[in-house]
């Protein structure tokens, strides 16, 4: 953690992480991770360019329509893992509203209080940019003292740097902006980038120099949304990941908990192999029971940390006046304070892998 002038505020090292979770950690970019996961599946397991238009439950199964009468798929259950704006959830909730079984809080809009601009550079010259030859990834976060921004950087394999800029916005204003447009244009992100070009980074350069090394089509600007739904399943339809609990990225728990959801649900499917409506309901209830309390805790912690990291409003500014203390308290309570039995440790109990027995990251790295 650094202030605007790169004066160090705090450093958090986690030498006990391997003991805590049972394995070391590594930083990996999304394309590499996607290729790794895809390589473990038969090619015909995933269908691309499909859009769900309707879901129909019937005695003994559920069908998914993707636009035409012939483009229909059948199964015992449907799991929506399609993100915060999940089409599966929208169809499910519409049906529950018609049955008057949808909790009122699940009809409320997402909380939107922050925006972020992010990107990943091309491979950089280690002679020009510092700290790129380290064997480990170094995540740094800089708190702007005279501007409404917090910016983060992370060096990844291939001498590249992932960067992001965060800012808190008025919730009602962000709601109006979301209503007026379906996507950001280049001018929106350009305004933020222009305001941040001279901000310092730990790589001996400014953010502006990182922007120049980033492909234009690789820069994104999004609202950071959060929402914890009470409804995770009904009938033969279930939800996981952001589709039922969208967290802010402040503590890096979104993807982690989506993985945990998938592991728990997959284990229950293989353990119970339900086909009846009653058996499927029982399985989904066990899944939510095992995951919901943990998600509630992570959701609250992530919300608080976002105020500390990105906040600019009165309450958040007050919390940011003691960033060293709040950060250390956060890590103690959320990581180092866990005893092994209390940590989220899940073992995948599914049948043997369908893909190759061994895989080298070199084979899937882009």
What's the name of the CATH homologous superfamily of the largest domain?
A: FAD/NAD(P)-binding domain
- What is the subunit organization of this protein? single chain
Radius of gyration: 22 Å
Q: How does CATH name the architecture of the largest domain?
A: 3-Layer(bba) Sandwich
Average of pLDDT:
81
**What is the CA-CA span between the terminal residues?**
30 Å
The total count of strands amounts to 13
Give, in order, the helices and strands.
EHHEEEEHEEEEHHHEEEEHHHHH
Number of helices: 11
The biggest beta sheet reads: 7 strands, mixed
What count of structural domains? Answer: 2
Content-based structural category: alpha+beta
The CATH topology label of the largest domain is: FAD/NAD(P)-binding domain
How much helicity do the residues have? 25-40%
Spatial shape: elongated
Physical arrangement of strands within the biggest beta sheet: 1-7-8-9-6-10-13
Strand fraction equals 15-25%
Under the CATH scheme, which class of the largest domain?
A: Alpha Beta
Q: What low-confidence regions span 5 or more consecutive residues with pLDDT below 50?
A: 179-185, 334-343, 352-366
